[in-house]
Amino acid sequence: MVKKKLRNSNAPIDLASADSDYSKHRSCWRHMVAHLHAQKKRMTKREIEEIKEIFEFTTPCFSNTFPHHERSKRRTNCKNIIIHKEKKKLDTAAFEWYFRNLWKSFSDDKKSSFGYLDCLWFSFYLKTSSREKVLNWIKKKRIFSKKYVFVPIVCWNHWSLLILCHFGESLESKIRAPCMLLLDSLQMANPKRLEPNIRKFVFDIYKEEGRPESKQLITKIPMLVPKVPQQRNGEECGNFVLYFINLFMDGAPENFSVSEGYPYFMKKNWFGPEALEHFFRKLDSIPKLDL
């Protein structure tokens, strides 16, 4: 009999590890394949193996706590997710579930100016083995046709929000020049440490799209870190990112230039803890739609 290797309880949390509680999310490779099959997407055996390889280090499956189709069970499970939210940091499955319901609560007219990337894509991009696929997925999102694109980032067991602004505009524009906003509710953790990977990520997106901008211009796109409200404990970062998205969609200006400062509403006192709690109560009251 093979002895089971004991885990080191003092080892750092690794988001890419299948043993990490934080890695629980909706993207079990079996469910991903089943989802694509249900959408009548034809896949070769090799493509299935590639999906399995990408998600190999980011499961176990979240199906035991994720909302089910039966109405009564869904209502119960929604409460369980709220309890999970209040007591523990949002994992990627709970975050994505809340985000999809938030997104569907906005009108089509409002959503037409915005785009978003899956909350796991940035993490997958950092893996050489899945980078090409992620860039291909992003290309299909047509982000250069949107004014603003939300990129939720989860790295080092912490959530932050990258917003790509006016990426379809000329890099030399004086009115709507492209820029990046990195919103982080834990600035003491030094959000700027993400900048090298973010800049490589953005350059590869431009390159994949076949855009004419030179590397020199792309590397000059400003990345700004506004002073935003800060979390009170180590568990609230995912909640803050969802609320950042909600407020930005509500108040984003038609145009803004970084030379004139941040959007008027983006300040350290943007909102208080009571507003955040009210937001989640409201979010939970939204009709629970299938993902």
UniProtKB/TrEMBL annotation:
Source taxon at top rank: Eukaryota
GO MF term set: cysteine-type peptidase activity
BP term (GO), one: protein desumoylation
Domain Ubiquitin-like protease family profile: residue ranges: 74-248
Entry keyword set: Hydrolase, Protease, Thiol protease
Transmembrane segment boundaries: none
Cross-referenced Pfam families: Peptidase_C48
Family per similarity comment: Belongs to the peptidase C48 family.
PANTHER family per UniProt: CYSTEINE PROTEINASES SUPERFAMILY PROTEIN, UBIQUITIN-LIKE PROTEASE 4-RELATED
Record's protein name: Ubiquitin-like protease family profile domain-containing protein
